[in-house]
Design brief:
The chain has eight helices and no strands. The protein has one domain: Growth Hormone, Chain: A (Up-down Bundle), CATH 1.20.1250. It has helices spanning about 10-35, 45-55, 65-85, 90-115, 120-145, 155-165, 175-200, 205-225.
Amino acid sequence: MDGKLSPSDAPFPVIATLFGLTFVTGLIDALSFLGLGHVFTANMTGNVVFVGFALGGATDVSLLRSLAALGAFASGGVVGGMVTSRRPRTPARHLLIAMYAEILLLSVAVTAALVTGNEVTSVSVYLLIVSTAVAMGLRNAVVRRLAIPDLTTTVLTLTVTGLAADSRLAGGAGSRGGRRILSILAMCGGALTGAMLLRRFGISITLIGTTLVVTGLASYLSSSERPRT
């Protein structure tokens, strides 16, 4: 199979995992924006805007950090595209490969944060930016291949637009409203949790918690793929 799913035939474990990864996106962007100096490593729209701000003379954003995040995310996207195009797999297997890579890259970020003891140095900042952005780019490429509406895990602009434009207030049928609202709440909840963890415990603990969440999601999805006896 080519990995693409319609909303009606998407397996529940895949749907549930994507909601969980949307929560993780909120954690990652809270960590990167609040802890690494106004840069996103999951939401690339923000970085494109920050590049424009920096070129326009804004002093509170970093051109180099935004470009590093964009380049790392794109590199991850290339790897994700290779993963999904070279061998047919079930959607869950595609997603698991991305999640295993995400766990590995987040572990690299955890190690870097622990070594520096939460002291944000120029080297550690870029290592954290690159490792988390590559992970997000790879995952985004795989999720894009699955093509499940309103479950991109990293971008909510179209989700919010669809929620409003398809609502009964706008004359629509209100289709997929529950899924869209849940996606928005998941990312908001992740951002809230990330901000609280970062303020209370610092970068290392926030990264460890994020890695554990992805590991738990991968374990759940993997167990759902095992044949029942």
